[in-house]
Amino acid sequence: xxxxxxxxxxxxxxAAFGARLRSAREERGWTQDELADRMGYTGRHIxxxxxxxxxxxxxxxxxxxxxxxxxxxxxxxERAWREIRHGALLEGFPEYVGYEARAVEIRLYNIGIVxxxxxxxxxxxxxADSAVRRGAITPEQAHERVSFLAERQAALVRAxxxxxxxxxxxxxxxxxxxxxxxxxxxxxHLIAFSEQANTLLQVAPYEMGERRTFDLPVNLLTLPDRSVxxxxxxxxxxxxxxxxxxxxxxxxxxxxxxxESLCQAITVAMINExxxxxx
Length: 279
Description:
With about 280 residues, the protein is of the alpha/beta class. It has a six-stranded mixed sheet with strand order 3-2-1-4-5-6, sandwiched between helices. The chain is built from twelve helices and six strands. The chain is elongated. It has two domains: about 15-75, 434 Repressor (Amino-terminal Domain) (Orthogonal Bundle); about 90-275, Endonuclease, Chain A, CATH 3.30.870. It has helices at about 15-25, 30-40, 45-50, 60-70, 75-85, 95-100, 120-135, 140-155, 170-175, 180-195, 245-260, 265-275; strands at about 105-110, 165-170, 200-205, 220, 230-235, 240.
Protein backbone atom coordinates (compact mmCIF):
# COMPACT_ATOMS: atom_id res chain seq x y z
CA UNK A 1 0.00 0.00 0.00
CA UNK A 2 1.39 3.41 -0.95
CA UNK A 3 2.52 5.60 1.98
CA UNK A 4 1.43 3.00 4.52
CA UNK A 5 3.22 3.73 7.77
CA UNK A 6 4.30 0.73 9.79
CA UNK A 7 3.11 0.86 13.38
CA UNK A 8 4.88 -0.27 16.53
CA UNK A 9 2.17 -0.95 19.15
CA UNK A 10 4.81 -1.44 21.85
CA UNK A 11 6.28 2.04 21.50
CA UNK A 12 3.49 3.75 23.47
CA UNK A 13 -0.11 3.42 24.59
CA UNK A 14 -1.08 5.91 21.89
CA ALA A 15 0.62 3.73 19.26
CA ALA A 16 -1.14 0.63 20.60
CA PHE A 17 -4.48 2.46 20.37
CA GLY A 18 -3.75 3.49 16.78
CA ALA A 19 -2.63 0.00 15.76
CA ARG A 20 -5.79 -1.49 17.23
CA LEU A 21 -7.92 1.06 15.39
CA ARG A 22 -6.22 0.23 12.10
CA SER A 23 -6.52 -3.51 12.69
CA ALA A 24 -10.25 -3.27 13.48
CA ARG A 25 -10.80 -1.12 10.40
CA GLU A 26 -8.90 -3.40 8.04
CA GLU A 27 -10.63 -6.51 9.41
CA ARG A 28 -13.87 -5.00 8.12
CA GLY A 29 -12.36 -3.96 4.81
CA TRP A 30 -13.01 -0.27 5.44
CA THR A 31 -10.87 2.57 4.15
CA GLN A 32 -9.96 5.42 6.47
CA ASP A 33 -12.55 7.59 4.73
CA GLU A 34 -15.23 4.94 5.18
CA LEU A 35 -14.50 4.66 8.90
CA ALA A 36 -14.42 8.45 9.12
CA ASP A 37 -17.94 8.64 7.65
CA ARG A 38 -19.19 6.20 10.29
CA MET A 39 -17.52 8.11 13.13
CA GLY A 40 -18.15 11.68 12.03
CA TYR A 41 -14.50 12.55 11.42
CA THR A 42 -12.26 13.04 8.39
CA GLY A 43 -10.03 10.40 6.85
CA ARG A 44 -7.03 12.56 7.74
CA HIS A 45 -8.10 12.52 11.39
CA ILE A 46 -8.40 8.72 11.35
CA UNK A 47 -4.94 8.48 9.81
CA UNK A 48 -3.51 10.76 12.48
CA UNK A 49 -4.90 8.64 15.33
CA UNK A 50 -3.79 5.40 13.68
CA UNK A 51 -0.21 6.64 13.39
CA UNK A 52 -0.26 8.24 16.89
CA UNK A 53 0.49 11.66 15.40
CA UNK A 54 -2.92 12.91 16.63
CA UNK A 55 -4.19 12.16 20.15
CA UNK A 56 -7.49 10.42 20.65
CA UNK A 57 -10.27 11.96 22.72
CA UNK A 58 -13.10 10.40 24.71
CA UNK A 59 -15.56 11.42 21.98
CA UNK A 60 -13.38 9.75 19.34
CA UNK A 61 -13.04 6.55 21.40
CA UNK A 62 -16.79 6.34 22.04
CA UNK A 63 -17.46 6.92 18.34
CA UNK A 64 -15.06 4.08 17.50
CA UNK A 65 -16.92 1.75 19.88
CA UNK A 66 -20.21 2.61 18.16
CA UNK A 67 -18.71 2.09 14.70
CA UNK A 68 -17.11 -1.25 15.58
CA UNK A 69 -19.92 -2.50 17.81
CA UNK A 70 -17.73 -2.76 20.92
CA UNK A 71 -19.91 -0.66 23.24
CA UNK A 72 -20.33 -2.49 26.56
CA UNK A 73 -17.62 -5.05 25.82
CA UNK A 74 -14.73 -5.83 28.16
CA UNK A 75 -12.16 -4.11 25.92
CA UNK A 76 -13.69 -0.95 24.56
CA UNK A 77 -11.81 1.81 22.80
CA GLU A 78 -13.05 4.14 25.53
CA ARG A 79 -11.34 2.02 28.17
CA ALA A 80 -8.10 2.09 26.15
CA TRP A 81 -8.40 5.87 25.91
CA ARG A 82 -8.82 6.15 29.67
CA GLU A 83 -5.65 4.12 30.20
CA ILE A 84 -3.82 6.59 27.98
CA ARG A 85 -5.31 9.55 29.78
CA HIS A 86 -4.38 8.25 33.22
CA GLY A 87 -0.80 7.63 32.22
CA ALA A 88 0.38 10.69 34.19
CA LEU A 89 -1.46 9.58 37.35
CA LEU A 90 -0.05 7.43 40.10
CA GLU A 91 -0.99 3.77 40.35
CA GLY A 92 -4.26 3.26 42.19
CA PHE A 93 -5.42 6.86 41.80
CA PRO A 94 -7.85 6.42 38.87
CA GLU A 95 -9.55 3.61 40.82
CA TYR A 96 -9.67 5.80 43.91
CA VAL A 97 -11.40 8.58 41.96
CA GLY A 98 -14.14 6.15 40.96
CA TYR A 99 -14.89 5.57 44.65
CA GLU A 100 -14.53 9.27 45.45
CA ALA A 101 -17.39 10.16 43.10
CA ARG A 102 -19.87 8.13 45.17
CA ALA A 103 -18.45 8.54 48.69
CA VAL A 104 -20.73 9.88 51.41
CA GLU A 105 -17.80 11.16 53.50
CA ILE A 106 -14.38 12.32 52.33
CA ARG A 107 -11.47 12.94 54.67
CA LEU A 108 -8.31 14.55 53.32
CA TYR A 109 -4.94 15.46 54.76
CA ASN A 110 -2.28 17.25 52.73
CA ILE A 111 1.20 18.65 53.26
CA GLY A 112 2.71 21.48 51.22
CA ILE A 113 0.00 21.89 48.58
CA VAL A 114 -3.75 22.42 48.64
CA UNK A 115 -5.70 19.14 48.19
CA UNK A 116 -6.81 18.70 44.58
CA UNK A 117 -10.52 18.93 45.35
CA UNK A 118 -9.97 22.41 46.81
CA UNK A 119 -7.56 23.80 44.19
CA UNK A 120 -8.54 26.72 41.98
CA UNK A 121 -7.94 26.24 38.23
CA UNK A 122 -5.08 28.77 38.31
CA UNK A 123 -3.37 27.05 41.26
CA UNK A 124 -3.74 23.64 39.60
CA UNK A 125 -2.33 24.97 36.32
CA UNK A 126 0.74 26.40 38.07
CA UNK A 127 1.50 23.00 39.61
CA ALA A 128 0.99 21.20 36.30
CA ASP A 129 3.14 23.69 34.38
CA SER A 130 5.88 23.33 36.97
CA ALA A 131 5.87 19.56 36.43
CA VAL A 132 6.22 20.17 32.67
CA ARG A 133 9.24 22.44 33.19
CA ARG A 134 10.87 19.74 35.32
CA GLY A 135 10.28 17.21 32.54
CA ALA A 136 8.07 15.07 34.80
CA ILE A 137 5.07 15.19 32.42
CA THR A 138 4.33 16.44 28.92
CA PRO A 139 2.27 19.58 28.14
CA GLU A 140 -0.52 17.29 26.95
CA GLN A 141 -0.46 15.38 30.23
CA ALA A 142 -0.52 18.68 32.13
CA HIS A 143 -3.67 19.70 30.28
CA GLU A 144 -5.27 16.32 30.99
CA ARG A 145 -4.29 16.55 34.65
CA VAL A 146 -6.01 19.92 35.08
CA SER A 147 -9.09 18.78 33.12
CA PHE A 148 -9.27 15.57 35.15
CA LEU A 149 -9.18 17.59 38.38
CA ALA A 150 -12.06 19.77 37.16
CA GLU A 151 -14.11 16.62 36.49
CA ARG A 152 -13.38 15.33 40.01
CA GLN A 153 -14.54 18.60 41.53
CA ALA A 154 -17.68 18.68 39.37
CA ALA A 155 -18.59 15.13 40.42
CA LEU A 156 -19.03 16.33 44.02
CA VAL A 157 -21.68 18.89 43.05
CA ARG A 158 -24.77 16.73 43.42
CA ALA A 159 -28.16 16.69 45.13
CA UNK A 160 -26.75 15.02 48.25
CA UNK A 161 -23.10 16.10 48.39
CA UNK A 162 -20.67 14.19 50.63
CA UNK A 163 -19.42 15.54 53.92
CA UNK A 164 -15.87 16.71 53.27
CA UNK A 165 -13.41 16.94 56.17
CA UNK A 166 -10.09 18.57 55.28
CA UNK A 167 -7.04 18.89 57.51
CA UNK A 168 -4.08 20.70 55.98
CA UNK A 169 -0.59 21.15 57.32
CA UNK A 170 0.26 24.79 58.04
CA UNK A 171 2.80 24.58 55.20
CA UNK A 172 -0.10 24.50 52.73
CA UNK A 173 -1.09 28.09 53.46
CA UNK A 174 2.48 29.36 54.00
CA UNK A 175 3.94 28.04 50.72
CA UNK A 176 3.58 30.60 47.95
CA UNK A 177 2.45 28.86 44.76
CA UNK A 178 2.10 30.88 41.57
CA UNK A 179 2.69 34.32 43.04
CA UNK A 180 0.54 36.71 45.11
CA UNK A 181 -2.54 36.81 42.87
CA UNK A 182 -2.83 33.05 42.44
CA UNK A 183 -2.18 32.41 46.10
CA UNK A 184 -4.59 35.04 47.36
CA UNK A 185 -7.37 33.63 45.19
CA UNK A 186 -6.58 30.13 46.42
CA UNK A 187 -6.68 31.15 50.08
CA UNK A 188 -9.96 32.98 49.48
CA HIS A 189 -11.30 29.77 47.92
CA LEU A 190 -10.33 27.81 51.05
CA ILE A 191 -12.30 30.24 53.18
CA ALA A 192 -15.31 29.93 50.86
CA PHE A 193 -15.02 26.15 51.13
CA SER A 194 -15.13 26.35 54.93
CA GLU A 195 -18.43 28.23 54.76
CA GLN A 196 -20.31 25.41 53.07
CA ALA A 197 -22.75 23.33 55.11
CA ASN A 198 -21.12 20.00 54.25
CA THR A 199 -17.48 20.91 54.94
CA LEU A 200 -14.98 21.23 57.77
CA LEU A 201 -11.56 22.81 57.30
CA GLN A 202 -8.77 22.65 59.88
CA VAL A 203 -5.09 23.59 59.89
CA ALA A 204 -2.59 21.28 61.59
CA PRO A 205 -0.18 23.93 62.95
CA TYR A 206 3.59 23.61 63.00
CA GLU A 207 3.49 23.66 66.82
CA MET A 208 1.73 20.28 66.73
CA GLY A 209 5.20 18.79 66.30
CA GLU A 210 5.42 15.06 66.87
CA ARG A 211 1.67 14.89 67.59
CA ARG A 212 0.97 15.11 63.86
CA THR A 213 -0.21 11.60 63.00
CA PHE A 214 0.65 11.56 59.27
CA ASP A 215 3.86 12.32 57.41
CA LEU A 216 2.36 11.83 53.94
CA PRO A 217 -0.92 12.89 52.27
CA VAL A 218 -3.85 10.63 53.12
CA ASN A 219 -7.36 10.30 51.64
CA LEU A 220 -10.09 8.34 53.43
CA LEU A 221 -13.47 7.61 51.87
CA THR A 222 -16.64 6.36 53.55
CA LEU A 223 -18.81 4.64 50.95
CA PRO A 224 -22.64 4.33 50.95
CA ASP A 225 -22.40 0.91 52.65
CA ARG A 226 -20.31 2.60 55.41
CA SER A 227 -17.16 0.73 54.44
CA VAL A 228 -13.97 2.82 54.46
CA UNK A 229 -11.12 2.80 51.98
CA UNK A 230 -7.80 4.61 52.18
CA UNK A 231 -5.57 6.06 49.48
CA UNK A 232 -2.07 7.24 50.36
CA UNK A 233 0.78 8.26 48.13
CA UNK A 234 4.42 9.22 48.05
CA UNK A 235 6.17 11.21 45.33
CA UNK A 236 6.21 8.24 42.96
CA UNK A 237 3.69 5.67 44.23
CA UNK A 238 0.06 5.51 45.18
CA UNK A 239 -1.67 2.75 47.17
CA UNK A 240 -5.39 2.01 47.52
CA UNK A 241 -6.28 -0.06 50.59
CA UNK A 242 -9.68 -1.64 51.32
CA UNK A 243 -8.67 -3.98 54.15
CA UNK A 244 -10.40 -2.99 57.40
CA UNK A 245 -7.47 -4.23 59.48
CA UNK A 246 -5.20 -1.57 58.01
CA UNK A 247 -7.75 1.12 57.06
CA UNK A 248 -9.47 1.54 60.43
CA UNK A 249 -6.22 2.46 62.24
CA UNK A 250 -5.75 5.17 59.60
CA UNK A 251 -9.24 6.45 60.37
CA UNK A 252 -8.40 6.54 64.06
CA UNK A 253 -5.20 8.45 63.30
CA UNK A 254 -7.22 10.95 61.27
CA UNK A 255 -9.57 11.55 64.18
CA UNK A 256 -6.54 12.09 66.42
CA UNK A 257 -5.17 14.58 63.91
CA UNK A 258 -8.46 16.49 63.92
CA UNK A 259 -8.47 16.62 67.70
CA GLU A 260 -5.01 18.26 67.72
CA SER A 261 -5.68 20.62 64.79
CA LEU A 262 -7.04 24.14 65.04
CA CYS A 263 -10.80 24.60 65.07
CA GLN A 264 -12.34 25.98 61.90
CA ALA A 265 -12.79 29.52 63.24
CA ILE A 266 -9.12 29.81 64.19
CA THR A 267 -8.15 28.11 60.92
CA VAL A 268 -10.02 30.77 58.93
CA ALA A 269 -8.40 33.52 61.00
CA MET A 270 -4.95 32.05 60.25
CA ILE A 271 -5.73 31.87 56.52
CA ASN A 272 -6.87 35.50 56.54
CA GLU A 273 -3.59 36.46 58.21
CA UNK A 274 -1.70 34.53 55.53
CA UNK A 275 -3.66 36.38 52.85
CA UNK A 276 -2.28 39.66 54.10
CA UNK A 277 1.15 38.45 53.08
CA UNK A 278 -0.02 37.72 49.52
CA UNK A 279 -1.39 41.18 48.74
